[in-house]
Amino acid sequence: MDLRSMIRKSSAIITTAAGATPETLYQRTAGSQNPRTVILRKILVYNDVGAATIMIGTGIAAGWVQRWPTLRLVNNMDNIWTEVEIPEVEIGADLTVQTDVLGVLVQVEVDEVGS
Question: Are the CB atoms for 113 and 4 separated by under 8 Å?
Answer without folding.
Answer: yes
